[in-house]
């Protein structure tokens, strides 16, 4: 905004930040455009158009480069965002679009005006009027205006220049308002993109958290599975060991039965030898002392063998008792089967008698008899 101090001097203020300056915010841009204008009015239209196209491309590239240097930073005290230039370190509260786009927009609009022949004709007419009124060039007239020399001709020129400047400033103000509106739109789009970026960032963090939880849970399940697999391997080893033990017991049982038969044969042989020795002892009562001593030794040895045979016989009897129990169980099963067989024979005889007594040839009775005989028991 434009202001005046107590002495009537013009200064400029930023309504957003409250900052003030004596220089016009767009003074550098206006000076640059004035130089471009002085060059373009001397060129032919084709060369002027090509030059303006090159200028637009250069200005757009410059604007993109300058806009990319700014990044937002959150103020730790107020919590608001401010913007910093990564190249110069300059900071400001305004969005870069509000500062950079108006000047860039003014350059582009001014370049478009330089293609307008009527606008250039007005500039030429204004330059001619200035030269006729003062007899000086444009640059010398500018120095005359700045030096404050008061002549009638210069006053007329100053009035005309002032009016033209007012019109240009009015046009510039209109363009600036449009540029600010565009900047507001760009800022709104930037804020929307920023919100979308923050939301995407939060979603990514949530997904990362969920993925970490899923990985931790998967690792726990894998550990449980490994524990179950270890328990299964232990149970499998115990089962194999029990199966081998059962096979060993079965083998020992077979060996014990074979040994029992062998010991029974030895016992029979020992009993026969004992009877023979008794007969020899009765027949040789009149034998010599040496023979008696020998007989006693042989009798003692035989007694020891007999005792061992008795021990083996006792073990064999225990084994025989177990075998007898099994034989009794088999005998009971055999008797049960015999009873069932006898019952079947009785039923068969009854069917046979019934078939013989039938008057119609007993065909149906014979079929029933065959079905009964073929039925499983």
Automatic annotation (TrEMBL):
<feature type="domain" description="WW">
    <location>
        <begin position="1"/>
        <end position="27"/>
    </location>
</feature>
<dbReference type="Pfam" id="PF00397">
    <property type="entry name" value="WW"/>
</dbReference>
<feature type="region of interest" description="Disordered">
    <location>
        <begin position="278"/>
        <end position="297"/>
    </location>
</feature>
<dbReference type="InterPro" id="IPR036020">
    <property type="entry name" value="WW_dom_sf"/>
</dbReference>
<feature type="region of interest" description="Disordered">
    <location>
        <begin position="357"/>
        <end position="377"/>
    </location>
</feature>
<feature type="domain" description="WW">
    <location>
        <begin position="70"/>
        <end position="98"/>
    </location>
</feature>
<protein>
    <recommendedName>
        <fullName>WW domain-containing protein</fullName>
    </recommendedName>
</protein>
<dbReference type="InterPro" id="IPR001202">
    <property type="entry name" value="WW_dom"/>
</dbReference>
């Amino acid at each position: 905004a434009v202001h005046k101090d107590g002495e009537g001097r013009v200064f400029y203020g930023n309504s957003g930040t409250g900052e003030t300056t004596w220089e016009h915010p767009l003074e550098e841009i206006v000076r640059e455009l004035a130089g471009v204008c002085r060059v373009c009015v001397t060129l032919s239209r084709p060369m002027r158009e090509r030059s303006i196209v090159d200028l637009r491309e250069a200005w757009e590239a410059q604007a993109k480069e300058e806009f990319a240097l700014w990044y937002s930073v959150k103020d730790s005290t107020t919590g608001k965002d401010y913007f910093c230039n990564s190249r110069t370190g300059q900071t400001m509260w305004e969005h870069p679009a509000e500062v950079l786009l108006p000047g860039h927009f003014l350059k582009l609009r001014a370049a478009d005006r330089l293609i307008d022949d009527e606008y250039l004709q007005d500039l030429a007419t204004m330059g001619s009027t200035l030269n006729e009124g003062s007899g000086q060039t444009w640059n010398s007239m500018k120095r005359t205006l700045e030096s404050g020399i008061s002549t009638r001709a210069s006053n007329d020129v100053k009035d005309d220049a002032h009016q033209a400047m007012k019109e240009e400033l009015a046009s510039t103000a209109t363009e600036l308002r449009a540029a600010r509106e565009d900047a507001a739109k760009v800022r709104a789009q930037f804020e929307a993109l920023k919100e979308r970026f923050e939301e995407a960032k939060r979603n990514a963090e949530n997904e990362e958290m969920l993925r970490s939880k899923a990985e931790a849970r998967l690792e726990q399940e894998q550990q449980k599975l490994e524990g179950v697999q270890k328990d299964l391997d232990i149970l499998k080893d115990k089962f194999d060991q029990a199966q081998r033990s059962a096979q060993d017991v079965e083998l020992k049982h077979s060996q014990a039965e074979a040994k029992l038969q062998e010991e029974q044969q030895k016992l029979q042989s020992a009993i026969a030898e004992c009877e023979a020795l008794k007969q020899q002892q009765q027949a040789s009562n009149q034998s010599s002392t040496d023979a008696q001593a020998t007989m006693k030794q042989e009798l003692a040895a035989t007694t020891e063998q007999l005792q061992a045979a008795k021990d083996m016989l006792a073990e064999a009897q225990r084994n025989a008792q177990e075998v007898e129990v099994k034989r009794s169980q088999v005998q009971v099963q055999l008797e049960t089967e015999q009873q069932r067989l006898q019952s079947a024979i009785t039923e068969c005889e009854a069917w046979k008698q019934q078939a013989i007594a039938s008057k119609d040839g007993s065909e149906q009775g014979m079929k029933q008899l065959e079905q009964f005989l073929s039925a499983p028991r």
